[in-house]
Amino acid sequence: MAFKISINSLDLCLFKISLNFERIEEKRRSYRPSKEEKKRTLVEMKIVIQLFLLLATFAALVCSNDDDNDLLAINRKHHQQVMEHLRTDFDPCSQYYEYVCAKRQSSDDDNSEAMNMEIKEYLEKTPLEEMPEFGKAFRDFFESCMQEDKFDWSKFIQRVEQEENMKWSLFLTPNSSNRHEGVVLYWPSTLATFRKYGLNDILLSVSRVYRNATNFWLYLDNPLTLDLVEDDERHEYQQAIKLPPEAMMTLEDLWPRISAFEEEVENIDSLRWSGEEGTFKFNQLPYPWLQKYIGTLMESQDIEANVEIVISDMAYMKALDRLVREYGNDFICRYLEIRFIKHLGMENDKRGSLNKCMSYAKRFMPMATEWIYGQIHPELIAEIPKIHEHFEQVRYNINKTLHTHNNGIIAPEFLRKLQTMHFKVGNLPQENTTELLENYYLRLKTNSGDYYGNYLKLLKFHRDVIDDMSESYKNLDNLQADKAFFFKTPNIEAESDIHPQYIANMNLLILPLGVLRPPVYHVGFENLFKVSSLDTLLGVSVFAAFPRLYKDLSIYAIPQIVGITSLHSSFETFFSSLPADEMEKYLKMFDLTSLQQLQQLFFANAIQHQCTWRFYKSRHVNTVTNHLAEFIEAYDCKALKLLRKF
């Protein structure tokens, strides 16, 4: 039987309840407890408080124990990973690189993929309204990349033609050459167009120096190097760019001329610095093609009023003018198109995976990557003071080592640089970061359905960063200081590795947040792992200024000096101040039986996270360890001990 109540009876019930509450309240106001009742109440309150404190203490102990167990598990897992990757069939005394690194490649790939998956999860779970515009641009580029199975050069070339209202000479046929009214194929315009997207090292290198917000010098230099188009690359280009059968010049015809042309470019490059410098107004430039190049490059700017053009080497420019007139406009246009494709990199043709697309996004937008990674790992901010302490200890130990074992090799200038070197964790300012990044990426407008358009916009964006062409930079109050933290070369590198950066003109070492992840760093790592990996990495990184001062040393000598000094420094930091009880803790934690085994673990962890870095190739690592007394003792390398006696 269903329970029913009428509205009237409900009102009556509520009225009676309210009367009862009024009577209870009246009694409470008139009630006066006795002294015994007050005393009893106080005792009961004390008991309740004590019970509460006891429960709180117990809960804290439980949580603390859970935290301790978690940290123990993190460190034991990392120890297990280090040990599992050792190749014990190699002799550590003679082949330490192989001993530590032979099984590392797949693990490093897994680590990179783990970071990429973290970023992907952030992009998927963060609502659009909570994401800054540059975060949306990062997501647009990644999502548009995922829509393409591979990089289609024909689609990309069509997108360039559409964006720049130009035609590619490579694809012209006798029937198509006159169909494009208003489109003039002239190689200076082609070179200027491609320079917008980063091609700045072919025939001419252009840079600018601002005198104020609108006036600047435009410097024209001969390129520093020429990365030749090799004969054996022709097949790759034929696979990537499918020319029509009736094309006016085939790649087979073009390739021998490219080789001959580049040989002559190298010959005139030998004239470097043999000529005088010349300064011109735009209308005074000595070559019509140079006027066309500068005019296309500057677009709508008032060149005559605001720009002075400085030709650094008039002899080179005269020889270049002779060469381009000799080879003719049609060939130079086609040559520049081949160079542009080479500049972008043939590896674009091999993509087709989530991990590859995320790596491209990280390469193109490193500042956005850093910001996103900071959102994913806010716990790293609290670690910054501790990491500064690591840096200071590294600086102190390296300085001490170099003063003790100098032997006249180390220049005083480097020691001064070391003493005054600035250090920053994270390559973004810690104040107003989002606002500054919004300004930095202000002109970048992306579309999640237009991969090739996004690709072009990011290429141009990187060129604009270097040229200061973006109006958004001029709106920043502290341009030079802000740009220091937004430093990125315009050359899009083949890898997306995040690594320390040294900015020479500021003597500044920057450690991006993205470096601070396993196997280099984890908040929960024991000091053994932090010092052996992070301090060794910082030790290598502070030497970034070193090669600039020692250009006469061989390419092998510098890495050996750097490796020995940095590894010795981190070893000294940890073991010189290791108390007995701390050592016992590590031995028990990792089931070790001796100090010697602990030292071996230190060295393996110090090297293993650098296995895929170019700096640490087999020859360098093995030479470093063979010359380090602490390593020789740790691994009881008898032959090396004997050699050291002589």
UniProtKB/TrEMBL annotation:
GO terms for cellular component: plasma membrane. InterPro entries: Peptidase_M13, Peptidase_M13_dom_2, Peptidase_M13_N. It comes from the Eukaryota. GO terms for biological process: protein processing. Coiled coil: none annotated. It is a single-pass type II membrane protein. Residues 92-373 form the Peptidase M13 N-terminal domain. GO terms for molecular function: metalloendopeptidase activity. It is found in: Cell membrane. Gene3D superfamilies: Neutral endopeptidase , domain2. Signal peptide: none annotated. Its main location: membrane. Belongs to the peptidase M13 family. This is Uncharacterized protein LOC105261678. The gene is 105261678.
